[in-house]
Amino acid sequence: MRILHFPTRYFPAISGAELYFQRISEIISETYHYEIEIYCSDALDFSALTSQKGKKITSENKYFKKVNNLTINRIPIKYNQTLDEQISFIKKYSSYESLSISREILELFLKNGPNISEILNYFKKENEMRYDLIHSTYLPYFNNLISLVLGKMYNIPTVCTPFFHFANQRYQNPCYIELLKKFNMIICCTSLEKKYLIKNGVNSEKIKIVPMGIDLEYYEKCKKMNFKKTFFGEKQQNFPMIFFCGNKNFEKGAISLLKTIPLILKEKKKIIFTFIGSSTEAFNRELKKVKKIKNKYIVNLSPSNLKGYFDIKKISAFRECEIYVMPSRSDAFGISFLEAWVFKKPVIGANIGSTPEVIDNGKNGLVVEFDNTEDICSKIVYLLKNKKYAKQIGTAGYQKIKDKNYLWSHISEKIFKIYNKLIEGDNF
């Protein structure tokens, strides 16, 4: 069997969605001997999906065409076409017209990018489709609409893992739901995500729940480095560290955590903070304000400081932190909670979206009100002062990984079975 995986971006782009496709592609290819081929844009960051100012991968990069023995086809994004030109291009395809998608939906997805519709010309030249199924991710990007056009063009099943951030107002446009209805199968990460889609009109029989995973053994055996000593100094290596990992924006809660730092320092002076992820202008502005309080103990790493998802610095930060905090409203699951639980660390997330299903409040972590700095501060200080309880809920998180089988090998097996059912013509 041959499968076309169609993510928006691919490694060395770093986010949970990228890792999701990387791991299921590698495991299904190696374990079940399916031929997996990746198509994606050449963007490395999200801004490049619509702007030439964003970061893109070039053909000189060693990962441009191959990542761990998988073929990667990176389609250059076209920035010089007007919206009308893009609409005219895609409307030439009868398979697009057969989807009966409104102009409003088409314009929305075109504006979100990436404009890689030239891929349709490539596949049109093929005498027959070489794939048995297309799996794309994630909303709200245009590659998902293209995958539907290709599915119609060659009459093959289409699957989407939308990573639907349903608690974020940006994603509550009904056009997104209307597009999802066109897929043969939707893979949700949590039952809360599934319930939201059903409530908004998606057929429940089209939805399967498959969570995210972790490479538990790799993390546990990963080479160690002294993160605190390296980035903060010998004296500060004994200070408790608060750690955040993700896009440093408002949606992920990074800015809220920054604003919490002055409140925390009133309660505990000897403490250090680490942020890893892509920075935003808003985060950098807030960081300057926080640094004016003369706290020397903030380290701010970006993806340019890392060597990918399994970077030793990032894994070491998870290993050495006292508390992992990501009070986000834009997560369909939150792989980083699993990363913290590997090392039995207590976690704090926001009581919104899918997070309350991942974190069992009071058992393996704590939840806070989104963007409530006083609540975030209160929970952090409580865990710092109650080390026995912090250790207890961190250990419970590790046990949840085991109990729920949050391992990529298990996740990939579930997705493999979904593929088989669809290819055999069984829509469940």
Number of domains: 2
Name the CATH homologous superfamily of the largest domain. Answer: Glycogen Phosphorylase B
Q: How confident is the prediction overall: mean pLDDT? A: 93
Q: What is the strand tally?
A: 14
Describe the strand arrangement of the main beta sheet, using strand numbers.
Answer: 3-4-2-1-5-6-7-8
**Overall radius of gyration:** 22 Å
* CATH architecture label name of the largest domain: 3-Layer(aba) Sandwich
- Using the coordinates above, name the CATH class of the largest domain: Alpha Beta
Beta-strand percentage? 5-15%
Uncertain regions spanning at least 5 consecutive residues: none
Q: How many separate helices?
A: 18
Straight-line N-to-C gap: 19 Å
Shape: globular
Major beta-sheet overview: 8 strands, mixed
Give the fraction of residues assigned to helices: 40-55%
What does this molecule look like?
The chain is an alpha/beta fold and 428 residues long. 42% of the residues lie in helices and 14% in strands. It has 18 helices and 14 strands. The protein has helices at residues 16-32, 83-90, 94-97, 103-112, 119-125, 143-154, 174-180, 191-199, 216-221, 227-232, 254-267, 281-291, 312-320, 335-342, 355-358, 373-385, 387-404, 408-423; strands spanning 2-6, 35-41, 66-67, 70-75, 133-136, 158-160, 185-188, 207-209, 241-245, 272-276, 298-301, 323-326, 347-350, 366-368. The strands form 2 sheets. An 8-stranded mixed β-sheet has the order 3-4-2-1-5-6-7-8, with helices on both faces. A 6-stranded parallel β-sheet has the order 11-10-9-12-13-14, with helices on both faces. β3 (66-67) and β4 (70-75) form a beta hairpin. α1 crosses α18 (408-423), α11 runs parallel beside α12 and α11 crosses α16. It is globular and about 65 Å long. The model has no long low-confidence stretch (mean pLDDT 93).
